[in-house]
Write a sequence for this structure.
């Protein structure tokens, strides 16, 4: 009986391992889909696994690691785990600076996520600082009329409103509203 139990347990473990994706990008995409569906708690373990696999496959400073860290930062922000989120986002930003450059739109995307984190933490002044930096990078990369600036401008409006500076908040909100809408996602 004991031999049968061990064989059965071994078979179950082999099936469980076989059913688990071993590619970091598969896990990353699954975590992203869960994030988009608002299922943050379910996405976190997948994103953590994606991070571990990316680090194992490519090393700790690879851009894939940066992607996983950025996603984890967003997920932890959504879950209200701000200290962890900030650490993930700052590490992602460091990696993005090395891979894409400090002035890149990729780095600006991480700054947006830091801005969202600081707003959620009740630190609008800190949010404005990183969001102004993100806005400058996006404008440099895409021009001042790109739809890609909309989210940053909306975050800046929110930050200035939180700082009780309604004129500046309205200015950023109006500028965001004047931008063209993002293109529809193709499926």
């Amino acid at each position: 009986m004991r031999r049968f139990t061990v064989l059965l347990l071994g078979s179950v473990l082999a099936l469980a391992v076989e059913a688990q994706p071993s590619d970091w990008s598969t896990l990353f995409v699954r975590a992203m889909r869960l994030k988009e569906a608002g299922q943050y708690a379910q996405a976190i373990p997948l994103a953590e696994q994606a991070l571990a696999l990316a680090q194992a496959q490519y090393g700790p400073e690879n851009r894939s690691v940066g992607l996983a860290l950025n996603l984890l930062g967003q997920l932890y922000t959504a879950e209200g785990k701000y200290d962890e989120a900030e650490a993930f986002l700052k590490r992602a930003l460091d990696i993005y600076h090395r891979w894409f450059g400090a002035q890149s739109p990729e780095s600006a995307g991480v700054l947006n996520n830091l801005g969202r984190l600081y707003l959620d933490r009740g630190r609008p002044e800190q949010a404005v600082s990183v969001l102004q930096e993100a806005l400058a990078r996006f404008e440099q990369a895409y021009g001042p009329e790109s739809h890609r600036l909309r989210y940053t401008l909306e975050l800046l409006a929110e930050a200035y409103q939180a700082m009780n500076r309604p004129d500046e908040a309205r200015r950023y909100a109006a500028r965001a509203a004047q931008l063209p809408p993002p293109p529809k996602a193709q499926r």
Remarks:
- DSSP finds nine helices and no strands in the chain.
- The mean pLDDT is 88.
- The radius of gyration is 20 Å.
- Residues 40-58 form the longest helix (19 residues).
